[in-house]
């Protein structure tokens, strides 16, 4: 409803709220492309370029220059100001006030969109129409589709005919919460594509650390109804060994050296957990 109101030309400025790692510029560009202003230009100003207090005059000069109308084709339809949270409070306040009260001095039809990562600062944007962009952990049902999109993008970019994810790799990637949001997912898929040696991304191709493994193992344990700490820890340990064995090609000795364990100790633990190095 909020997007429809913005696209319908509600006359209100728009505040895009999203966690770090969410590319709000793409959302702003989408809104512009489907708005009454779409025949005009989309102008982006990254406010991190004006983070130092002494650069505030340069921002206003840049804004005025960008809004100057030379001909009809140069008219701005949507002005997107990104990363406003990096500015000092007084500077932020002047930008919000400018967008609220002085927009008509430039062009009353311009839609001003401001991107914000710190939700706590939203109270400063009185009069703006707030729109929250969901984090990846809130879009679990969309993860397979989003992963496939990134896979196609990086497959084309790297000129590698990769058709999809192996089942265990996709299972891991859809269980993860991506605290770094879309930027983290993009980086993981890109690295996996670069190292993939077959036409599918396998589990061994996925870059991962302990946090990712812990997160995924915990989610898997909950999904399987294993809520006891002992069972969850055992699943985490099995996931760690399973991934390391995949990455080493089933080389138990290499995994033992990596973990600084005697090979016999690791082999006994693998047998106890039911981990087959050949799997």
What does this structure look like?
The protein has helices at 2-7, 24-33, 56-67, 89-101, 143-157, 167-175, 181-195, 210-223, 229-247, 252-259, 263-273, and strands spanning 14-17, 41-46, 76-82, 111-116, 129-132, 164-165, 200-201. With 279 residues, it is α/β, with parallel strands linked by helices. The strands form 2 sheets. It has a 5-stranded parallel beta sheet with strand order 2-3-4-1-5, sandwiched between helices. It has a two-stranded parallel ribbon with strand order 6-7. The chain is elongated. The model has no long low-confidence stretch (mean pLDDT 83).
Number of helices: 11
The biggest sheet, with number of strands, parallel, antiparallel or mixed sense and barrel status, is: 5 strands, parallel
Helix content: 40-55%
Counting DSSP E segments of at least 2 residues, the number of strands comes to 7
Radius of gyration: 25 Å
Outline the low-pLDDT stretches: none
**What percentage of amino acids are in beta strands?**
5-15%
Terminus-to-terminus distance: 49 Å
- Helix-strand sequence: HEHEHEHEEHEHHEHHHH
Task: Name the overall outline.
Answer: elongated
Order of strands across the biggest sheet? 2-3-4-1-5
Determine the structural class based on helices, strands and strand pairing. alpha/beta
* Arithmetic mean of pLDDT: 83
């Amino acid at each position: 409803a909020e997007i429809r109101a913005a696209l319908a030309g509600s006359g209100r400025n728009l505040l895009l709220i999203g966690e770090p790692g969410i590319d709000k510029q793409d959302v702003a560009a989408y809104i512009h492309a489907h708005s009454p202003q779409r025949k005009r230009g989309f102008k982006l100003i990254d406010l991190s370029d004006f983070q130092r207090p002494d650069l505030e005059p340069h921002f206003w000069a840049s804004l005025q220059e960008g809004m100057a109308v030379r001909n009809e084709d140069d008219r701005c339809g949507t002005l997107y100001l990104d990363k406003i949270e990096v500015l000092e409070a007084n500077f932020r306040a002047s930008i919000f006030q400018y967008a609220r009260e002085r927009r008509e001095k430039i062009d009353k039809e311009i839609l001003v969109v401001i991107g914000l990562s710190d939700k706590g600062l939203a109270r400063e944007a009185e009069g703006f129409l707030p729109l929250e962009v969901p984090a990846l952990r809130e879009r679990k049902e969309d993860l397979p589709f989003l992963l496939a999109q990134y896979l196609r993008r990086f497959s084309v970019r790297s000129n590698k005919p990769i058709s999809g994810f192996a089942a265990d790799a996709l299972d891991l990637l859809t269980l993860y919460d991506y605290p770094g949001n879309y930027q983290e997912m993009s980086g993981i898929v890109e690295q996996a594509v670069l190292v993939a040696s077959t036409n599918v991304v396998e589990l061994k191709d996925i870059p991962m650390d302990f946090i990712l493994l812990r997160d995924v193992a915990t989610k898997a344990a909950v999904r399987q109804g294993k809520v006891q700490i002992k069972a969850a820890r055992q699943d985490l340990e099995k996931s760690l060994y399973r991934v390391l064995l995949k990455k080493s090609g089933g080389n138990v000795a290499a995994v033992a050296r990596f973990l600084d364990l005697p090979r016999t100790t690791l082999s006994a633990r693998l047998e106890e957990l039911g981990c087959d190095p050949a799997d």
